[in-house]
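Quick one, tokens below. Sequence please?
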């Protein structure tokens, strides 16, 4: 029997070794049987750092979309943890859920009915010999990297996730008997299970470092000087950055890169002065740092300096606010940007036709 299982575990499926998938699904089944969502809350977050892992994985037990869809989300690294859970900008109501997801990084386990499984999940389960007609739900794994669309986990993530979930399985039993285990030093310090060079696991408390602020927003001073010499008129521009329907296949990965579109539209004429593609594969803040210079380039296409720029989100307001210290225009936030919305809908329709 053991030899048969070993033979079946040879090769790869969905990019990762079959043996790694089997270990991952084995611990997922243990967690499902334990059903720790009865006592685990978002306040019971803890970290797991396997030996050799580049970053700590922060583990959260929650429900996603439906009370029946139980999830375990592992967020890699302090930056990812801060961006996904501690940053209020993620809660902007006007943004589509997928657009917010593209800015996050995590690997997630969910338990779904067979008809809700992704193609990759079905391929893995079939290779593991699981009968999709025999149960009411099955383990499903999804990976999200900042700047990409959600997809299946990569080979390294499958191995990493299995190690993290084995520790999570033990942790939820400890938390059931000691509910305050991981909350003692919150919010400054977080409980982390760490693995040493010998392979042994230990409890530790890690202080959360401050979020990194190392993105420099630069603008071309000569361009600013040229714009300063122009007469200001009553032109109103509307500016927004949004996720487009385009997907770019990553040559080094199975994932698809997300493409954002920066639109600058004349409110009166409804003409687009700028339509620029930006990506967040090097980080969301790095992408947003390109916005002020792109807006200045759009302003150069006018005969005069615009009197006002309208935006609809707090982040765009903050990004463009430094420009008001260099140039005499008014910056206003509005709930709706009708001219820009019309241009966005038209552009999105054209892009969908090209897909």
């Amino acid at each position: 029997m053991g030899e048969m299982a070993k033979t079946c575990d040879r090769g790869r499926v969905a990019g990762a070794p079959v043996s790694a998938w089997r270990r991952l699904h084995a611990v997922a089944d243990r967690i499902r049987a334990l059903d720790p969502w009865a006592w685990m809350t978002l306040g019971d977050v803890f970290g797991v750092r396997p030996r050799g892992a580049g970053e700590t994985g922060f583990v959260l037990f929650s429900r996603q979309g439906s009370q029946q869809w139980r999830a375990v989300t592992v967020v890699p690294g302090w930056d990812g943890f801060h961006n996904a859970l501690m940053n209020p900008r993620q809660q902007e109501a006007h943004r589509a859920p997928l657009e917010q997801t593209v800015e996050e990084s995590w690997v997630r386990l969910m338990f779904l009915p067979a008809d809700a499984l992704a193609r990759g999940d079905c391929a893995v389960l079939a290779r593991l010999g699981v009968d999709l007609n025999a149960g009411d739900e099955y383990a499903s794994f999804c990976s999200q990297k900042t700047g990409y669309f959600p997809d299946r986990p990569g080979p390294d993530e499958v191995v990493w996730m299995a190690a993290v979930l084995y520790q999570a399985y033990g942790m939820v039993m400890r938390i059931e008997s000691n509910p305050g285990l991981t909350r003692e030093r919150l919010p400054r310090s977080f409980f982390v299970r760490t693995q040493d060079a010998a392979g042994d696991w230990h409890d530790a408390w890690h202080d959360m470092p401050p979020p990194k602020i190392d993105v420099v927003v630069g603008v071309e001073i000569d361009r600013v000087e040229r714009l300063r010499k122009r007469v200001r008129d009553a032109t109103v521009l509307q500016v927004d950055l949004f996720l487009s329907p385009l997907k770019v296949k990553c040559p080094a990965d199975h994932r698809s890169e997300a493409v954002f579109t920066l639109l600058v539209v004349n409110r009166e004429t409804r003409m687009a002065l700028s339509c620029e593609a930006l990506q967040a594969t090097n980080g969301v803040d790095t992408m947003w740092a390109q916005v002020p210079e792109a807006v200045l380039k759009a302003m150069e296409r006018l005969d005069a300096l615009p009197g006002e720029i309208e935006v609809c989100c707090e982040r765009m307001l903050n990004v463009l606010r430094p420009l008001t210290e260099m140039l005499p225009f008014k910056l206003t936030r509005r709930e709706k940007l009708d001219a820009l919305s019309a241009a966005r809908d038209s552009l999105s329709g054209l892009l969908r036709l090209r897909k």
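The CA atoms of residues 126 and 132 lie 8 Å apart. Residues 155-177 form the longest helix (23 residues).
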